[in-house]
Amino acid sequence: MVSMNIDEKKTYYLGKFDTGEIYTEFLDEIAIRQINVINGKYFLSSSLEDWNEEFGYLLYDGKKSDLDLSESVSINEENFEKIWFKHISNADVESFIKYEIGDASAPKHSSSLIIHIVNNRGKWGKGFVLALSGKFPDVKTQYLKWSSQKDFNLGEVQFINADKNNGIYVANMLAQDGIRKDYNDKTIYVSYEKLDECLIKVADFALKNRLTIQMPKIGQGLGGGDWSVILQIIKKRLAYKRIHCKIFTIN
């Protein structure tokens, strides 16, 4: 199991140079988002693959402690988010959501985070989880262990390194309160509020570890949720931060 360090915190800096400015968001030692302002043009980045032909790579790939920040100014999260919000369009956000027919439990490439929703009853036995634990048995084992611990609360996320050789992680998101009784049960068991809390944690984990995300249509099956509502939460917490998300459907 991989834990997010609760002592990690976000810090924000503004650096200026002859032709522009750089706004950087750090999670502990790692730069997770960056706004490069060069000759009046704004370039947003949250991936090491972000590249501009004129200026090169757009996200710092070192440790914060290795930088000389003596001439940079510490800013707050609100200032950073205000600029990010102003310069990311709806089209940008939409471009980070892709749909594909297939098995969401099968990683398509290395450095991936598979996310799904689990219930708060400690039950693992229906739906997507069967395919997932069939490929990665430790994901089920760790969830069952977690279900008896004090931090097994709605809104929490358990991160598991399912395949160390290929950098495949799984996020067990605790966002379902109860279990669907049968196909006639129309109760909404997924908590949109707790899913939102989970995805905030997922975004930080994915950005810090340089991961793309894949998932089934979370929360709408056994969770009974409205996909249109869930999709908006995914866009708000993941795609808005330029995290590539691939959503798998059966057909």
Question: What features would you describe in this structure?
Answer:
This protein has helices at residues 77-87, 90-95, 128-135, 137-146, 192-208, 227-237, and strands spanning 10-17, 20-27, 30-38, 41-45, 51-52, 56-57, 73-75, 97-101, 112-119, 157-163, 168-176, 212-215, 245-249. The model has no long low-confidence stretch (mean pLDDT 94). Helix content is 25%, strand content 30%. The radius of gyration is 19 Å and the shape is elongated. It folds into two domains: 10-87, no CATH class; 95-249, 3-Layer(aba) Sandwich (Leucine Aminopeptidase, subunit E, domain 1). Strands 8-13-12-9-11-10 form a six-stranded mixed sheet, with helices on both faces. The protein has a five-stranded antiparallel sheet with strand order 4-3-2-1-7. α6 links the parallel β12 and β13. It contains six helices and 13 strands. With 251 residues, it is of the alpha/beta class. InterPro entries: ALC1, Macro_dom-like. This is Appr-1-p processing protein. Belongs to the SNF2/RAD54 helicase family.
CATH superfamily of the largest domain: Leucine Aminopeptidase, subunit E, domain 1
CATH topology of the largest domain: Leucine Aminopeptidase, subunit E, domain 1
Secondary structure tally, helices: 6
- How much of the residues is beta strand, in percent? 25-35%
Second-tier CATH architecture of the largest domain: 3-Layer(aba) Sandwich
Q: What is the strand tally? A: 13
Mean pLDDT, rounded to whole units?
94
Ranges where pLDDT stays below 50 over 5 or more residues in a row are none
Distance between the termini: 32 Å
